[in-house]
Structure formats: structure tokens, C-alpha cells
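@channel anyone free to eyeball this complex?
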Amino acid sequence: MTTKSAAAATRGTVHGYPRQGQGRELKKAIEGYWKGTVTAEALQSTAAGLRRERWQQLADAGIDEVPTGDFSLYDHVLDTSVALGAIPARHRAAVAADPLDRYFAMARGTQQVAPLEMTKWFDTNYHYLVPELGPGTVFAADSGKQVAELREALALGHAARPVLLGPVTFLLLAKPAPGVAAAFQPLTLLDRLLPVYAELLADLRAAGADWVQLDEPALVQDRTPAELNAAARAYRELGALTDRPKLLVASYFDRLGEALPVLAKAPIEGLALDFTGPAAGNLADLAAVGGLPGKRLVAGVIDGRNVWINDLGKSLATLATLLGLADRVDVAPSCSLLHVPLDATAERDLDPQLARWLAFARQKAGETALLARALREGTGAVTAELAANRADLASRAASPITRDPAVRARTAAVTEADGRRPQAYPERAEAQRARLGLPLLPTTTIGSFPQTTELRTARADLTAGRIDATGYRERIEAEVREVIAYQEKAGLDVLVHGEPERNDMVQYFAEQLTGYLATRHGWVQSYGTRYVRPPVLAGDISRPHPMTVDWYGYAQGLTDRPVKGMLTGPVTMLAWSFVRDDQPLAETARQVALALREEVVDLEAAGAAVIQVDEPALRETLPLRAADRPGYLAWATEAFRLATSGVRADTQIHTHMCYAEFGDILTAIDELDADVISLEAARSHMEVADELAGAGYPREVGPGVWDIHSPRVPSTEEAVELLRAGLLAIPAERLWVNPDCGLKTRGWTETRASLENLVTAARRLRSELAG
Ligand code: GLN
Ligand code: ZN
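replying in thread with the prediction:
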């Protein structure tokens, strides 16, 4: 790249890049290694090839400084645990001989030992492995992976910057190891951890690192003064080291807030800030602290989490302001590009007009480089590119795909009353009791039944054209018949059709709604070798035809017992998709809600007395900063109510969420005004029932009594005991009996045994209560 002019220092860089390769070669190699069909050497050579390819792609896109160490065979937080020697004793012992097997043992467990716990990476759909620490943890630097990857990149002639998770975030993400008191705070290990970081930094310096990036995304969350002090201390100490590379501390996903002055004052050489979405406030905050005199600012002006082209003009305006606030301004996406698919040009089936609006990782790297060039050489050097960008943005804004007048008219006409059931809950409850005539402690399931190989084969056969739509329908109908017959025989009270026709609870609806777009190769890593292909909310949403009514009708026609209509709620439809960046999320949610409302009303007209609208993502989409939560919860709950409030008093609305810790959204759960809510509770021993009761929750609750995440079959006694615990909090008239979540990942054998025990448990308690 040729550089000239006084602003020559500006570079384009990225924090991280997708790992899998265009054909998900990494997944294939790793899973092959697990199966024993790929050797360790072959796996490592595939990995090295992919790293080389990623760097080359970045260089070809015009990126001046590539990241190293962000590549991972499973997860970068796990890599950090290994680099710091934070390896639980059970994994050390398990496969002591081989570091690679030990690594995968930590990630996935073995026959003998449990893996590390996995949880969501901030508010993304990526999952990391939670470090386990205790007062006895002894850290030890293991810079092998970081050093090797840096050397690879340098040998290929790239300017490279190692990226690793910073000490404060590492400790804040960790949890007490099994057997350690729950009150143990990993952050108390900071003083012990810093010398290990010092060693890693020295090793990287010795291997040729000019800069090292330490990621501290945990600092964009609300932090206590003690935590902010820890951050100040960490970077004061690391900054004071003599044998170290220059330090770039990176934040992303939200604004740094009160951590900004802390890092601005720290003796580090650079700071990476996100200036997109909720983090846009960083701009004013940065001006308020007087900028970063003498420091390098890596400006995240391109949204690293959506799939849309950047508004280059707008980013240039932001960069122009930033130029006055730091010594040197570099351009980057807001966060690692791990969260977007690799290459939009692979989507050859898309409408070419629409394809021009998309930017995946490769395209975002190109945009980054272009902006850097504009800063270096002046906008005159990129006039044609800027004009093309303006034309693409204008075509998107004016397109009938993004502006459907009928949808706009409907959302504009929504009133507060549309989002409220006309009758108060007591009146509804009475009408529903009369219509449904259910016993005390009614039994039900959450929706899906085991997704058998036959079902997956049927779907693959349909896609490949080996069977036609009729043939596919026949196979699904046979499955529904079996599921209904089984539930009748098992004695369940409210039945489900089993969701055999659904590939995925979001994709199934996205495929049928106008305005949603499916990609062919748009894979993003969810965890380890699991990749998902989220649909894209591209335009205004409408429902051209009913989506579930036929299947509901078929199932209900087979039985006299009520069958639940089963839908995915608006918040989850947004959370597990790529959302629009050209209108507020609340607006998109309202469009989806209105489409679902039509479906709910149609299900009711088709005879459904019970309709369940799942919202498992309500909590995970909660903004990172508490101050932003009320606003989010207001539109999220409104969207749910809008979807569900078009029904009569005697139609029972259920919702379902799959988590047990939801203390911070209790009020929001109440605000949904669902008649019945089912939740995960088995593992936490019905704690949720207590919490709901404590908050005065007035409606019916089904705290799960079967942990479906494990193949274990709960005994009748166990279910009875859990239900007794539930009855202490929730009166029998308002308690349901159900599993924690859907059964799609379970086998039929344990499903039969568990459901039979659940029904027996409910019957036993019913007769006790009657006696
Ligand atoms: N109805 C869905 C099912 O049973 C709910 C899944 C979920 O909560 N994630 O599969
Ligand atoms: Zn669930």
C-alpha cells in the first residue's frame, strides 16, 4: 500500500476475522479429528492454511495491520485460559499427555470429566467457555499459540498485531471453580495474574510484536468503583513494564462510559473504541475527556455485527471529528468480524440489487481500508467509491423491499389499545377454565418432540428433490400422528403437534415472511464447531399466507384434547436474525409482531384454544448498560402483547423462556400479560417459582421439572418433590407441569420415560390435593 501526505499514519485494521473458511473447512477438520478420521497434523495444517488465507484476504482488501491470535480451534476465551495456565485440575489429569486433547476436553468434556461451562459472549450469539478460578489457582504463562501465530504472519510479510483477552475482562468473565465458595470473586486474583500477562507481553515483544491488543469488552458494562479501580491498576502496572510492546486496549459492543477516563489516563499507547449503535455515545464522551492526546485511537466506525454496507459519508464525518481528538486515528470495524459471515459475494442467488446492500466480513474489511485511504490521501482519492456507496444506500432507502406502504400504514395505525387484551386477567382466567376444563396441575410440553434422523432425512430429501412437497408432507403428517397418539396415551392434558416441519424456530417463520432473506453460505460461529445461518431482516415484514394453521388443524383434527398453536415471538425473531440498521429495532419488532398477530388470530379462528408464543431471547437481548434496559423492555414487551392480544378472553396465551435466572426482567415478564408462562427450573430446584411468587406474579406458571439438557430421566419421586417445592410458591390452581424446554434434541426413549413420570407425578399430587 502506498502512503503519502502528512496524515500517512492512518491505517486500516480489524480486531478479528471469521475462522471457519468459506467451506467451513475448520469445522470439518476438527470434527474429523474428534472422530479419528483426521490426524492432529492434518488438523493443524488445515488451521495454518486457513490463517494464511484470512491474512491474505485482509491484505488483499487493503488492510494494513492484521490481527493474530484471534484464530481459534474452539474459542478465544478458552485459548486465553490456556495461555494463562488457568486449567482446571480435572482437565489436567484427564489427558495430561496431549495439549490438544486437553484443550478439547476443557471445551467438550470426556467420558470422565465435565467440560467448562459455556455461556453467551456479551449480547452476541457467540458462546465462550467460562474460565474456572479459585483462591488456589496458579497462573502460568503459555505464550506458544500467540507467538507461533504472530511468527506465521510476520513470516508471510504482514504487519501484525497479536490480540488477546485483557486481564480485567478475563477475570470478570470467570466464575468460581466447582467446590469454591460462590462468593469468591475472581477479580481478587488480579495481582497474581498481571505478572503472567507481563510474561506473555515480553514473549510477544521478543517474537517481533510492535503492538499488542488487549480486549476489555467487560468494561462497556456497568462497573463498580472497585472494578474500575482494578482496571486502572491493571493498566498502570502493565503500562509501567519496560520490556513490552505498545499496548492497545480495545473495547466494543457499547460505550466505555466511566471506564473511558480510566483508560484515557492509563500509561498505554492506544485505545480502540466502538462508535456504532449503542456505543455512538463514545464520541461525545471522548471529547468530554479531552480526547487521547499522544495516543493511537482505533476508531470502530463500521458496524461489525450487522450485514449491511456502511454509510461511508457518515463514517468519514465521524472520523473527521475524531482526527482532532487523538494523535493518530486508525480505522476499524466496531468489533471482531467473527460475528458476521465471511463473504457476501458467495451469495449468488440473491437479487443483484439487494446483494449490493450487503457487506460481510470481507466487504467490511474493504470498507475499512477504503476509509483509511480516504483519511490518508483525501476523499478525492475515493470519489468514485463514495459515489457508488451513496447510490447503493439511496437504492436501499427507496426500494419497495425496505418501504412497503401497506406495512408502514399498518404499523403507523397501531394504538396503545391494540397491545392490550380487552379483558383483565381474572375474567380471562375464568373464561379459559370454563372452555378448557383442565384438571389441577395440567401437564403439557414446550412444543418440539425429538427431531429424529428420519425427519432430517426427509428435509434433506425435499431440498435435494428426492421427494416432492406431497411426499414430504406425508412424512411430516405421519410424525404428527405418532406424536399426538403418544401424548394421548401418555395422558398429557394440553398437546403439541411436535414441530416436525420446522428446521429451526426462527428460520421456519423467516422463510415464510416477506421481507426476510435467507443466505446460502452466511454461516457464523455459535460455539466450537457449531455454526448457524441467521436469516436477514432485509425489508418491511408482512405475512403473505398463514404459516402454521394447516399443521395446527391437522394435529387438532386427530384429537379431542386441546393442541397448542405454536409460534416464535417477535423479540426472538429479531434476536436470532441479522437486523436492519436503517430503522429502530422497535419498528422492525412492531412489523414482525403485526405479522404474528395475524397468525395468532387465524389460529384462534381455526379452533386453537391455547396458543404459545415463545420468547427465549427476551433476556439475552437486554442492553449491556442498565440505563438502556427500560427502553428496550418497553418495546420488546409491547411487541409481544401486540402479537398476542388480538384474541378472545377464552383463548389462552402461553409463553416460554429457557432460562432460570431472570431476576432483572421480572417486571417485563409480568408486562407480557401472557396467561401462562413456562420456564426452565429443574436445575435451580424451582427457584424461579419463588422469584415469581415473591414479585407477586398473578398468572399461571409452568416451572420445568425435567432438565432436558441432559439425557437423564427424572424419576416420578423427583418430579413430585420439585412440584411440591413449586406448590410452596404457586397455588395449585396456577401451577403447570412441564419439562424445562422443547424436546427436539432428546431421543424418544428418554422422552417417553420422562413424560410418563411427569404425568404420574402430576396425578399423584392431584389425588393428594383432592384428598
Ligand atoms: N417451542 C420450542 C420448542 O419446543 C421452544 C424452543 C426454545 O425455547 N428454545 O422447541
Ligand atoms: Zn426453551
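from a first look: Confidence is low (pLDDT under 50) at residues 1-8.
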